[in-house]
## 1
Amino acid sequence: MKLSPNPVLRRLGYRDNDRLVIIHTDDIGMCEASVSAFDQLWHAGAISSGSVMAPCPWALHAAAWCRAHPDVDMGVHITLTSEWSTYRWGPLSSRDTATGMLDDEGCFPHGCKTIQEYGDPASVAHEMEAQYQWAIAAGMHPTHIDTHMGAVVHPKFLSTYLQLGLRFGVPVMLPRLHDEEVIQRGMSMDDATVMRRSMAALEEAGMPFVDQYIGMPLDMNSDHFEYAKRALSQLPAGVTHFLLHPSTDTAELRAIAPDWRGRVENLHTFLRGDLHEDIHAMGIHVIGYRTLQELMPRA
């Protein structure tokens, strides 16, 4: 089943077969290396968007950077998991184990399946809003919300995620999936139908969605440049959320993340000017989430 062309294209003055890409950096504020990498990429004009992990140790530093750069296209990376072994974080809204959001170490669980199985929907909804409100209180002006590790893409949490975007007038990173793709992500046919109908109604009301999200690998330590060129050249028509996890090479990063080499390669690849020359030559249009925010319906 093929979806109709994304109405975002026409609303922005493009054709149905044009290719738009948001070059997006995740995990800002996870550690210092993520913030310094974003600083380099933003000033180089190499990326178009990013998102901050509010519960993480370096989120305050990321928020201070945003206050100093009010034109930045930065969203809130809704975080419900804490994946590393010895570098952890937990909820902003509650330390009550009854919420289902805490593991035995008092942090978010390591993986999505645990939070999706045990997380109380009302408590998770409260946490999502707490993270967004934290960003506002920290002086940020979020352009969108997205999801760490895709944890919110579950029937228990998805409605809250979408409604959060509507209430605050920001786009929600969620691809326009057809039923088969939703089922492949572990949902039932009934869940797929509800999700599709909800998204169709919101799209009809004016909420912009991306068509797909793809990204750079973290399990490759070399050849990221050729991978990026190939992936970008193969983008289909529509709006793509193109994901990076860039970090500078620091002792802290090496201690935190087993995939630190991939994160450093993500940074080095997108600092290369010739990659962006190639993107332009491919006829791909780079936009940010601020562009999509301008299309949002009034609350």
## 2
Amino acid sequence: MITFSTDMIAPRDRFDHWRDQRGKKLFGVTLELERERRTSFSGNFQASTVGGATLATISASAYRISRTPLDIADMPIDSLLVSQQVSGPGWCDNGKGQPFFITGGMLMAGHSDHPFTSTPSTASRFQFRTVKIPLNSAQSFARFAQHLPVTPFDPGAGSYSGLMAASFTALFDTASPLAKTEAEQSVDALGQLVLLARGLVAPGAQASRLAVRTAHRHALRQVMRRHCHRMDFSAEIAAPMLGISERQIHAIFEPTGRSFMATLQAMRVEEACRLLMARPAMRVAEIGFACGFRSLATFYRAFQGIVGVAPNDYRQWPGDRSLH
């Protein structure tokens, strides 16, 4: 993990450093900000790698950003970029004659070596997350991705866009981080889904089917986390939320070696662990029922099986409280 903050730099030098060292040398982009606003500028970012891909989160004062033909000539990147504007609205012009408005939560994707300009519509801070996937001949989507300018995706407009959003969210989920192998698979799936959403690769291709299944697993887990407190929650209830069949729900978890119900129980126990420590005055029985368990016997059995101790003992446990 790489982290950087302008807090360690004198205010008068912050934007110049961010522009030259972080924007130009690290990302190959041109940054612009009115001189009178530069002394109040601040920014920070963190980046990590998954396989050959880079995941980055940027939070900073608003500024204008562009990737010009000169930037591309000086620093060709040849990557598929999948990004999300978490906050901070603005306009993006990809040079194709149809600028689009960027709102909070919007996903965008395109090849790194197509010019674009992004202009904030307010002076408020922004937060931005991006996945940079270097292209290579082994990827089924590589040759198609090179022709894709930066374009927006509406997660509610189609199934592939929604699955892209689920995969993107899973990659940045620090509360439930993906294991290394699954994270790498998820990066590949995200790239394939971008091209599927644009109709540039075949839905029936093996890589496409794998990408859809991987993204469905992320979407399903996210739905399960939102509803795991419901005692009646089941695969039958989850299926229509995702627009798939109950049989597909169970098939999604086959590669993980853990069933739908076992995964749901683990999520409930994880939430119970959190509440046991966060709310010391809350009775164990209340916590069990609040986490979706139908009976105390089921709660104690599941908790003991996953954590290794009873809920009451967990509160007094002096050691590592990570789940076994």
